[in-house]
Design a protein that fits this description.
The chain is an alpha/beta fold. It is about 25% helix and about 30% strand.
Length: about 130
Amino acid sequence: MVYINLPVADVDASASFFSSLGFTLNPRFSDETTRCVVIEDNIITMLHAPEKWAQFLQGEAAPRGATEVMIALSAADRAECDDLRAKALANGGAEYAPTTDLGFMYGTSFRDPDGHCWEVTWMDPATIEG
């Protein structure tokens, strides 16, 4: 399992954004300060309100707007990359970096409403196999 913990300004708004991308919410692991977003069976994103996020930290949080991490997701094909990016931009996300097309690898990206960077990448299976 991979758990991605992210600070967000508004847990309801962030949960709505990720739902609009096609991800599901798990109410069992959600409360008034946290929303659990299931990206895939083994990839979970926990969206935390600022007061909840502070409970997890040792030291200072990165300032808002700083790029501290980029979350990368694998896509089945180029169309899935473009579709997820289009959904993100249509539902409150923002541009991050231009689309990259290397032929054997294709990637798009966006920022979620809280500024976290997300990349969606497809790689030609023939290239992966060697």
